[in-house]
Specification:
By secondary structure, the protein is an all-alpha fold. It is built from five helices and no strands. About 10% of the residues are buried.
Length: about 70
Amino acid sequence: MSIDEVIKRFGNLNQVCIALGIASQNMTKWKKQGYIPLLQQYRIAELTEGDLMPDEIDPRILKQQGK
């Protein structure tokens, strides 16, 4: 799941932060690193009732492999 998909689904960055109960700095960090941590992806999937599904592979692994 991409950060842009999540923002689009929730309406804006602020709404994502409110829904997840996180500070906006977390989203800034995710944008900088280029992925949403897998645990947060599962939380987003639950909040969206499956509209957004988590990645099948932990994005940290993909990032390390350069994919």
